[in-house]
């Protein structure tokens, strides 16, 4: 069976590669301008060539997980399909395109039009990333009749219940908190307390990834953060990059020799108060329930006979799930909400960012794969309606 071209079109990064590869390439889904090189645009991972990544200006094709600027998105796709990144021969290679839940029909039609008419794709499968996470989990756990997928992404976080391989639409929910909200909140806190970093999204995203963790006892950690070192073992210094001798910053503990001649941030309660938004969105005025309550709510919307299986088969995907302590905190909060009769089992894959892409790789090897796709001939013969009919039930 020939390989498929698997493209997970995330709002933060696109995961793309042929299905015969072990791992996908991760390409930022944006175009960036730098103060140091005003005449050049950096598309995707070309940012690695930028000499000074301070004060980057982002041009984002997606907003709240949906494509809003087609010219920018097409430019990113053109780069990805070029010989410099991950070229494809769509005359022979089917394309698996992953999208978020609740995507607009107009966006779906636009994507299909570009892939069929611009890229001359011969066979195309459009499918939610969560469906492929569930497919991947089902292949690894064939005895599990149900699965609850948590996708903690860049624009928002989703929870979706799957029963016997089919997603329950009424138990598919989202909250508007993801990696982007966390990074923006961190920028605001640091700008208010220490240093104006409102234009340093690229660097502050790295600070978030390197420094932050999820608290297991919020009250105790806040109390500890008010103390002085060494009683306060939460406080850290983050050495900021200068983009001459240091391209990426790093965490520096206070028991190490002090770093001189480098700009630094002092990270204290910011380390755990920023990821706390995943569990309490109302802290920044987002009037929605947190992730643990959302898990409980989605399970309670399902038939009673499925609930024990859903609690025992929770799979987490998405880059925002990689904070230390995330799984333990989620387990603790869900355990407190769920009935004592249920066992809770939460699985965090070794790489939650590419877990859905691996599901796309697996589905391309399914003996029934070609019954899922829409061919170019079908698309031209029946129009966009064939996409809605065919892709509505794939999972």
From TrEMBL:
<dbReference type="Pfam" id="PF00022">
    <property type="entry name" value="Actin"/>
</dbReference>
<dbReference type="InterPro" id="IPR004000">
    <property type="entry name" value="Actin"/>
</dbReference>
<dbReference type="InterPro" id="IPR043129">
    <property type="entry name" value="ATPase_NBD"/>
</dbReference>
<protein>
    <submittedName>
        <fullName>Actin-related protein</fullName>
    </submittedName>
</protein>
<comment type="similarity">
    <text>Belongs to the actin family.</text>
</comment>
